[in-house]
Every structure is written in structure tokens, then in C-alpha cells.
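chain below, 659 aa
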Amino acid sequence: MPGNIKAFQENKGQFVNTINSWKVLYGCDYQGTRTLFTDHGVIYIIPEKVKTAFNPSDNESRDEEQEKENTKIVLHSIAIEWKNANSGLTVEPIGVTPYYFGSIDPVNSGKSIDNIKGYKKLVFRNVQPGIDVEYAFHLTTGLKYSVTVHPGYSANAFKMQYSGQNGLLIDEKGNLHITTAMGDIIDHAPISSQNEAKVQSSFTKLSQNEMTFDVKNVNTKTDLVIDPWTVSPIDTGFLPSDVVMDSVNNAYILGMEAGGLYLQKYTATGTLAWTYLLTQFGSPGYVSDLAVDPAGNTYIPMPYPDTNSAGKYNFFGLVSLNTLGGVRYFNDTDTHHYDTLFEVWNLVYSRKDSSLIEAGAPVALKEQIGIVKASNGGLGFIFDTAIGEIYSGCIAPNGNYYGLSANPDFRPTSGPGDNVVCYSVNSGMPAFLWKAQTTYNWDDFENKNPNGVSNNSVAAGWNYLYTSDGLNLDQRSLVNGAIIDSVIILNGSNTSSSAVSGIAVDLLCGNVYVGTTNSLLMYDQNLNLLSSVPVPGPVYDVTCSDSIVSVCGGSINGFVLQLLISNCDSIVLGINNLNSIKPTFQVFPNPSSGLFNIKTSYDNNTIVEVYNSLGQFITQKKIMNGEALLDLSAEANGVYCLRILSGSKSSHFNIIVSH
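prediction:
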């Protein structure tokens, strides 16, 4: 679940059990693992993304098929049955989360499941006579479950039967290792108690696939609580690829985690509103693009086509959600098809005529652009065989569409580079206006981010067009695409391991925001650098309004930050750190004349870095026993950003120095 959201979702059909007949009551997607809570026990589902052998279909040429990275998601399932579970057990969900969920129906194509509630805790009552089982989320990582044995009953009656695992092993510390192809699920040695007094307990193996608890010196007149703690073998982290904002600065984030495609909404104050699972929509392992209209309706196109009953490609797979997280429409029907349709790279919303502009390729290496009715997904397309695939684009204030079109050779070692292309899109059908040669050589196999998305590298203001190849930022004419000025992007990159992108133009100030491998750069419209702020990893997308810049990216774990624009000449970092559910971090007093006390639940390996409003490093402190004293009394008045580094994760916190 994006941001490691801690919520048990009621099952309204979005969770499907494909390995046995157990009824799924609740489920959660957390730290790379899907967990199903059923009337017979628990099922862990761990995804693995694997490459598949080349096998072209009848409708595709070998060249077309080779443009796709042939991958699939393999699911590894481990079922843990509560032996002799009571058929009359009940489940009590506790603590409704302030956010909710939605999902494309995994069984009924084209249907949606909306308004799914989430809970903080599940209590299974009467699993066996006198025995309850409770599930909650551990403070730091994993799931915590406890088995409560009521007076007069025995813990030995609670037995767990395992299937699907490669083995069961109890290590020297008493931890149970459930061995899988993706690593070990670890049930930490139980901590048991009665009346808050510790009781000796341990896992006991009854057979090759059966476990129970061995508890010593039990008082049978009071409740016994057995409290293990489960950690999944993987924590893939959520990687956001696209971020957009509506007219009131709500942020919408599209990204992937463990093969799951998710869309999230955060309010302008940084509060999570809802999360929608789109995995059943589109091709597993890929995302395409995200657009939003002023009212907050979002649009996500299918990255690759599916074949319909007529043996043709579905012409335009498009899902639209309203601002409340419900599906408006899902176009994936036999009435929207064409003989050839290959890839969708880009989708933007035109406020001028309330339409969507979609671009990509009808077949490998060729250009495609179309106008889509935002109200219902109806469309009209044109194709251009003389120009390569459009892999990035935007709508300018003048109403025209500007895009980057790949060299038709696609993996060129020499010859002409990519083209900047311009289309009029105001008349109901796109009309080609001009193209201009660049020195860019975008490579479908090398210049995409880890989610398989090309890049977001075109933006336009009132006066100029801006494009980038990840290494250079070019200022261009809106009339013919000619370069006016160019700068090298500090810490830029366009390699597959750290391809960066993201350009946005603030239409109020005219400033340009550009993502790098570790920062967000702010230029004026003539490419003079105004400000630089650190971010936790490589940037994949940037968007802005009149007062807020939103930026997303990441490597192992993703990030989304909202940054406040200050007087058109600087940025204040981290007013909202979206998509980051983190341990306690307190700084006081704040504001301060220079001395700040830090108290946190982060461990002793945590480093706190300090940056000024220009993104310049000032100092750092190491957390010791949950505390640190930060002395900035020699620094000037202003806003400072604390960058908290703990393992592979990071977050941000703002403080103010006021002498």
C-alpha cells in the first residue's frame, strides 16, 4: 500500500482468494505483501516481478513485441490455517481510518468497487472455544498479532497448519522462519503475559507443517496473552511516477508498489483522502500517465492495449475517477477499438476546451496523438508515420499541444535526434503545425524510470517552451521550437538506474522547476538559477500552482513533497510530506532563537541533516537514545529544513530560527 498505509480493508470483492475455499473477510496491502484474513486463517501473498520469454502474438510483429519489456507478476501464497476453527467465529473491526479505499473489480471487467472502509485493528472472537486472535500494525514494521486464551482454556488447543511454504524453522532466538521463494516470513518469538507479568512461552513444532505455542506455568484463572510479531521478507516501497493538482491544490499521485498500480488523493493540507487500486486495469508492471481537471476528476490511460472479442485492440482504455475516489467511467469495451494500437505515453488535460490530449504510438516507432472527450472518453485520433513515438508532452497557455517525439530509429547510435512537435488541438481533431530537431536521443529501454514510465520533460509558459533530456534544460520558442538558451542540469541524469524528469512552469511568476537526482531546481524564465532544495531521491515528476510545487520520485522508497513558493524567488521546503507515514519526530521549541530539542522514536542509526532555504547543507546531528540537541544560534533568521535519514528511508521537517 502506498506510503505503507496501515489499514485493514473490509472485503467488498477487491480481495480474491484463488488458492482455497476460505472466505476472505478483510485484507491489507502492506510493505510489499498482501494479507488476506479469512474465516479459516490467514493467507500471505508475496508478488515477484519476473521476465518472460519472447513470444510474439499474431497481432504484433517481432519489432513491436521487442519494444515491450516482457514481464509478469508471479504470486507466492502461504496459507496458515487455524486448525479446527469455530464455524461461528466473528470479526470485530476496530478504529475506522479517516481515509478510504477503492478498486477496479478484479472479477467483473469494467466494474468498480468504491467507498471501502479501512480499520486499525481486527479482533477474531471465538476462533476456538475460549480463544480470540487480534491483528494490528506494529509500531515500526510488520504485523502484530496476539492470541488471547481466556480462563479455563489451553493455549495448546490453538494450532496453525501451514501450506505453500518451502519450510518451517525455529532459530536460536526462538523466531519462526516461514521460508518462501522471496525470502523468509519471520514470526518473532512470542512475548506472553498474564496480568502484565511476563510468562515463558515459545513456538513448538508439532509436525513438518504444524505449529503451536508452548507456555510454562500458566495461571488458568486469568487471561493469557501470547504476542508474536510478523515481518514480511520484502518491503518494495511505493514509487510514485506522476503527481498532478486540481484547482484547489489537492494532490493526486499515481505509482506502483509490488506490482500494484495505485492512485491516491491528498488534500491541500496534506491529509490522505483515499487510495484506489488500479492493478486490474492495464498491463501488470507498467503505468502510463495521469491527468486531472480543475474539479478534481482524474484520468488514467491504459499503458498497453488488450485484445477484445473481435480480435482487435481495445482502442482506448481509460479510467476516470471523481474527486471522491469513485469511478466515473471505465472505457475498455468492444466499441473502442482499432486494428493497431501500441503504447500510450502521455495524457494531459486542456482547460481551454475541456478535453484530454493523448499521445503515444499506434504501432512501434510511429507517432499517435488524439483528442479525448473528458466527459465520457469518446475520441478522435490522427497518426503520423514520419515521426516517432511521442513520449512526453504538455498543453501550453496558448492552447497548443507540445511534445517530444522519439527518433524513429529508437535506439540510435548516430543520426538525427528526437523532435519537438507542435499540434493545434482546439478544433476537435489534432492538426500538425511544425516539428524541430533536437540533440536528444531518448531510448525506450534506458531512459525510463523504474516504473516503466518514459518521462515528464516538457512544460510551457506564456512566453517560452521548456524541454529536457535529463541532462540539459532548453528554453525554446513557442512558435517554431528553436533553442533560445540552454543550461546544464546540476546532478541531472538520463540513465535507466537514475533517469530523472519533471518540468513545471509557474504561470504567475514565470519560474521553471526542474527535478534532478537529489534536488529540485528553481530557475527564472530566462534560466537563471534562483533556488535549490534537497529531496530524498531522483525526481520523476513536478507540477505547480500559483503558490505550491508538488514533486515526486524515489528509488527503493518513493516520496511526494509539497513545497511553498515564496515571493517568486525562493522555495520553502516540506510544508507537506505526503505519502510518508513515519515514526514520532518532535522538535521544540519551534520557532527558536537557535537551540532545538529533538525527541523521536527513530533508532540510533538516524542522522538529521540541516539545510537552509537555498538548499545549502549547514550541519548534521546523530540521534542517540531517541534524542538530540541542535544548535543553530549562529545561523541567520529563516526557515530551515531537517532531512531525517533512517536506513533507506527519509523524511523532512521544517524549523524556524528567530533571534
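The CA atoms of residues 82 and 160 lie 5 Å apart. Residues 62-66 form the longest helix (5 residues).
thats it, cya
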